[in-house]
């Protein structure tokens, strides 16, 4: 059993994690998994759970927290007419299918190769978005022609890593002609479509697993879920409001910095 003061500190940490991830969800259209996964992973490591249990609990719980955070962000962005609803309808089946595949793979394989790929891809996209002009018309037409295929792989990788997919979907949406605000708002909807089936699979897959934390449902830990969700409830509208008060170029620059930092952190956590 945890001492009262330790439990209080952990509770504050989880609430603060939710608060920060909620701002990111509203501001960038990401689910916040880039922050939530490592925090929960290190928390369960600190509490002496095995690395395998800690990582699966971190990914499953992160995906569960993304459901309300991305839905909250989607509603707030829709109020400001910055969601491409028709595109979400076109992509919904490939995203749902990709999410199921990714969550299934997460139960079977080591994700190190995909983490490296994701990190280098994020680095490349971040640098290109920061320094270069929009794609040529030929590149734009090519990306538009294969956007459903790309959305499948975005959903697969995102559910495998326990993230909402915004770091991948926002650059794709911009490449397909959406402005930054529309890309961020639409990405919130993509995060919801990714996280819902993926979290359900992690819940089912972990039902019969032993030596999990108390108050867990499958690979979803109830206490971190509720505390993080409570934090995002307050901060998502703040993130959306801040984003819509800035011009597209500035938001784009901030997003590029987020991509570069997340790429660096993933590689650092993997190899250090």
Helical proportion, percent range: over 70%
Strand order of the largest sheet: 1-2
Regarding quaternary structure, what we see is single chain
Sheet with the most strands, sense and barrel status: 2 strands, antiparallel
Mean of pLDDT: 84
What count of helical segments does DSSP give? 11
Shape: globular
Radius of gyration: 18 Å
What would you say this structure looks like, in words?
This protein has helices spanning 4-28, 33-46, 51-79, 85-106, 112-131, 137-145, 147-161, 166-175, 180-205, 222-244, 248-271, and strands at 216-217, 220-221. A hairpin with a 2-residue loop joins strand 1 and strand 2 (220-221). The longest helix has 29 residues, at 51-79. The chain has eleven helices and two strands; from the N terminus they run αααααααααββαα. It is mainly alpha-helical. A two-stranded antiparallel sheet has the order 1-2. The chain has one domain.
List the SSEs and their pairings:
Blueprint: H1 4-28, H2 33-46, H3 51-79, H4 85-106, H5 112-131, H6 137-145, H7 147-161, H8 166-175, H9 180-205, E1 216-217, E2 220-221, H10 222-244, H11 248-271
Antiparallel strand pairs: 1-2
């Amino acid at each position: 059993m945890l001492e009262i003061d330790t439990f209080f500190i952990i509770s504050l940490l989880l609430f603060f994690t939710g608060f920060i991830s909620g701002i990111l969800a509203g501001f960038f259209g990401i689910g916040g998994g880039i922050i939530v996964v490592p925090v929960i992973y290190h928390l369960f490591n600190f509490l002496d759970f095995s690395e395998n249990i800690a990582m699966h609990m971190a990914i499953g719980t992160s995906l569960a927290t993304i459901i309300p955070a991305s839905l909250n962000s989607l509603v707030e962005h829709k109020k400001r007419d910055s969601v491409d609803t028709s595109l979400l309808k076109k992509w919904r089946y490939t995203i749902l299918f990709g999410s199921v595949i990714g969550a299934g793979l997460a139960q079977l394989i080591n994700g190190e190769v995909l983490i490296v790929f994701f990190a280098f891809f994020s680095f490349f996209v971040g640098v290109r978005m920061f320094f270069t002009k929009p794609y040529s018309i030929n590149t734009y037409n090519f990306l538009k022609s294969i956007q459903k295929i790309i959305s499948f792989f975005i959903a697969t990788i995102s559910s495998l890593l326990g993230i909402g997919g915004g770091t991948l979907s926002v650059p794709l949406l911009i490449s397909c002609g959406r402005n930054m605000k529309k890309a961020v708002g639409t990405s919130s909807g993509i995060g919801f479509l990714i996280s819902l089936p993926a979290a359900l699979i992690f819940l089912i897959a972990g039902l019969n697993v032993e030596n999990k934390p108390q108050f867990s449902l499958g690979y979803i830990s109830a206490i971190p879920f509720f505390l993080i969700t409570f934090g995002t409830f307050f901060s998502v509208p703040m993130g959306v409001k801040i984003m819509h008060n800035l011009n597209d170029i500035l938001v784009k620059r901030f997003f590029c910095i987020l991509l570069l930092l997340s790429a660096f952190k993933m590689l650092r956590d993997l190899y250090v």
